UniProtKB/TrEMBL annotation:
Pfam families: ACT (PF01842), PALP (PF00291)
Example GO molecular function: threonine deaminase activity
Keyword Lyase: yes
Swiss-Prot/TrEMBL cofactor(s): pyridoxal 5'-phosphate
NCBIfam families: ilvA_1Cterm (TIGR01127)
Keywords attached to this entry: Allosteric enzyme, Amino-acid biosynthesis, Branched-chain amino acid biosynthesis, Isoleucine biosynthesis, Lyase, Pyridoxal phosphate
Binding partners and assembly: In the native structure, TdcB is in a dimeric form, whereas in the TdcB-AMP complex, it exists in a tetrameric form (dimer of dimers).
GO biological process, one term: isoleucine biosynthetic process
Protein name per the record: L-threonine dehydratase catabolic TdcB
């Protein structure tokens, strides 16, 4: 059986009645005073790369830290009194969990959220603080989802799917309405895609009001279910998933968003893990915004092929709920991918002060020494030789070349 993210379609609504921009407008009205109209920030750095204005739609600054509150609130608000009395249940490792928890709390509905064992503790704590009862089950989301669905069958609680429901899509589409209000001249909207709820909602709203605007979806290369699904004409489950971007790590498109994406999204691109890391680093350093890898995926697409987007461009930063330990790892990876680390091995004369002299050369070249390994007893070395391995932090590829040249000019030989 092919592995998926566990998010099988909510078959009661797998073939919805036709969604229109009026459904999105109704959702927008419902969300007034609940969801923030998030900021639109210009990016000079990305604008220079693309050759056209680039704006960042900051859903990472939304309540709960992601766009997920929008769809969750609209879905739960649409329940009957009887359904509300039974409570709601969801399965998620992060953003959807928090969105459901807060939405249910605001609407006075009891919520239970199943999360995988080992889910990041800050996300578990936040979900509880938003009012949900959290139950941990399973090592992967597949197992967690099955537990949530079994709980729904046993208790009568309403299962709130993260993307495969018309109300969810309508709620997420309110991001598109805000983009058109904040940047009416937009030429291209770039948005990350997992199950497709956000991209479908944005495309639904934007294409109805401004058909000329292009909508480009972005998936992680190691979890890209949409390209083969679109080619096949129906949702296809991936056999494996591999990406740091948990927010878009979805093994099968939702039936509801898939139909909309197939009709209205102009293009779906994929990005590498290196590109995701560089994008996250850029958001932090240049835009001063904390963004999770999934939220940085549109920026990764812009960095990968900047000249291929018709401006003005709006990149949707879908979320900022990144675990601090993952952030630390991704930032290191992003610096390496951006050429900010330099590893060197060289030999020098084994005499007092020789290592200090080398470090002085590096200091003059403005290289930050992270690690030094000094070997003096290796059988490959001559009697008066020592070998040094260095790991340096630099300012980028050009600075790496300058550091290498400074070392050579000082009389040192860099080993292969």
């Amino acid at each position: 059986m092919a592995a998926t993210n566990g998010c099988e379609a909510d078959h009661k609504s797998a073939v919805p009645s036709v969604l229109t921009v009026e459904d999105v407008r109704a959702a927008h009205k419902m969300l007034s005073g609940v969801a923030r109209v998030t900021a639109m920030e210009g990016s000079r750095h990305l604008s220079r790369l693309v050759g056209a204005p680039v704006h960042l739609k900051c859903e990472n600054l939304q309540r709960t830290g992601s766009f997920k509150l929008r769809g969750a609130y609209v879905r739960i608000a649409g329940l009957t009194a009887e359904e509300r009395a039974a409570g709601v249940v969801a399965a998620s490792a992060g953003n959807h969990a928090q969105g459901v928890a807060l939405a249910a709390s605001l609407l006075g509905v009891r919520s239970t959220v199943f999360m995988p064992v080992g889910a990041p503790l800050p996300k578990v704590a936040a979900t509880r603080e938003y009012g949900a009862e959290v139950r941990t089950h399973g090592q992967v989301v597949d197992e967690t989802l099955r537990a949530a669905q079994e709980y729904a069958r046993e208790t009568g609680a309403v299962f709130i799917h993260p993307f495969d429901h018309r109300d969810i899509v309508a709620g997420q589409g309110t991001v598109g309405l805000e983009i058109l209000e904040q940047c009416p001249e937009v030429g291209t909207i770039v948005v990350g895609m997992g199950g497709g709820g956000l991209a479908a909602g944005i495309a639904l709203a934007v294409k109805a009001l401004q058909p000329r605007v292009k909508v480009v979806g972005v998936q992680a290369a190691g979890a890209a279910a949409y390209p083969p699904s679109l080619a096949a004409g129906h949702p296809v489950a991936l056999g494996s998933l591999s990406t740091m971007a948990d927010g878009i790590k979805v093994g099968r498109p939702g039936d509801v968003p898939f139909k909309i994406v197939g009709e209205l999204v102009d293009e779906v691109r994929t990005v590498t893990e290196d590109a995701l890391s560089r994008a996250l680093l850029l958001c932090l350093e240049r835009a001063k915004l904390v963004v999770e890898p999934a939220g940085a995926s549109p920026v990764a697409a812009l960095l990968s092929e900047p000249e291929s987007f018709e401006g003005p461009v709006v990149a949707v930063l879908s979320g900022g709920n990144v675990d601090p330990l993952l952030l630390q790892h991704v930032l290191r990876h992003g610096m390496a991918a951006a050429g900010r680390y330099l590893s060197l091995r060289l030999r020098l004369t084994d005499r007092p002060g020789s290592l200090a002299t080398l470090l002085g050369v590096l200091s003059e070249a403005d290289a930050n020494v992270l690690d030094v390994s000094h070997a003096r007893t290796d059988p490959r070395l001559g009697l008066s030789e020592a070998e040094v391995e260095l790991r340096l932090e630099t300012q980028g590829p050009e600075h790496c070349a300058e550091v290498r040249e400074a070392i050579r000019e000082a009389g040192y030989t860099v080993l292969p």
